[in-house]
C-alpha cells in the first residue's frame, strides 16, 4: 500500500473550512426552514423535487435515488408527510410493485410558502457573500465533484 498523501497546511485549511462551513450552513438553513415554514430539509427536498416535475409525481425509487436515501427510509418519511397531507402514494399503473409519490394541493401550498424564505436564507448565508466569479468557481467545482461521485464505479 502506498504511503498516504497527507494534506499540506493550505489543503487542510480548505478541507476543514469546507467541513465547518457545510455543517454550519446546513444547520442554519434547516433551523430557519423549520422555524419559518414548519418543514424539515427532507420535507423540503421531497416537495421541491415533486413540484419541479411536469405532473408533480415521481416513482418512489427515483425520488429515493435523488435524495440518496434507501427506499425504506424514504417510505417511512413519506408516511409522516402523508399524515400531514403533503403527499399521497399511488400504485404504479403498469408495475404493481412500484409506487408513485404525488404532490397534494397542501404540499404544493407548503412548498410555495416555504420557497421564498428558503431562497432568501440561501442568499443571506451563502450566495450574497460571494462575488460573481466565486459563484462561477463554486458551480464548476461542485459539478466536478458531483460528476466524479456520480460516475459508475468499476
TrEMBL record:
One of its GO terms (biological process) is response to stress. PANTHER family: MARR FAMILY REGULATORY PROTEIN (PTHR33164:SF99), TRANSCRIPTIONAL REGULATOR, MARR FAMILY (PTHR33164). Residues 11-147 form the HTH marR-type domain. Gene3D superfamilies: Winged helix-like DNA-binding domain superfamily/Winged helix DNA-binding domain. GO terms for molecular function: DNA-binding transcription factor activity. It comes from the Bacteria. This is Transcriptional regulator, MarR family. It comes from Micromonospora chersina.
Amino acid at each position: 500500500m502506498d504511503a498516504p498523501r497527507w494534506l499540506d497546511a493550505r489543503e487542510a485549511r480548505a478541507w476543514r473550512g469546507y467541513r465547518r462551513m457545510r455543517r454550519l450552513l446546513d444547520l442554519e438553513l434547516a433551523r430557519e426552514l423549520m422555524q419559518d415554514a414548519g418543514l424539515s430539509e427532507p420535507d423540503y427536498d421531497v416537495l421541491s423535487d415533486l413540484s419541479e416535475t411536469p405532473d408533480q409525481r415521481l416513482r418512489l425509487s427515483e425520488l429515493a435515488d435523488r435524495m440518496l436515501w434507501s427506499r425504506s427510509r424514504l417510505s417511512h418519511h413519506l408516511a409522516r408527510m402523508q399524515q400531514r397531507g403533503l403527499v399521497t402514494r399511488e400504485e404504479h399503473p403498469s408495475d404493481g410493485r412500484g409506487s408513485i409519490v404525488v404532490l397534494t394541493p397542501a404540499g404544493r401550498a407548503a412548498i410555495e410558502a416555504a420557497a421564498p424564505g428558503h431562497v432568501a436564507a440561501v442568499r443571506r448565508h451563502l450566495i450574497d457573500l460571494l462575488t460573481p466569479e466565486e459563484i462561477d468557481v463554486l458551480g464548476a467545482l461542485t459539478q466536478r465533484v458531483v460528476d466524479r461521485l456520480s460516475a459508475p464505479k468499476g
